[in-house]
Amino acid sequence: MAVFVIAGLRHSGRDLVLPLSAKLALMATAGLVRALPELCISEAMLGPPYQSAA
Predict the structure, then answer these.
(1) What is the number of other CB atoms lying within 10 angstroms of the CB of residue 35?
(2) DSSP secondary structure string, 17-51?
């Protein structure tokens, strides 16, 4: 998601400053991905959710 936000900002000619909404969305996504193993949703892959949240 960060790549899309950065690419959109660069292609539209705006400065490379992430809007607050993008920062909040990225933080919420990282928190959800990190909580997936504890919620038994992705318990088969314990490593990748933590790597993607980092």
Answers:
(1) 13
(2) ---HHHHHHHHHHHHHHHHTTTTTSSTT-SHHHHH
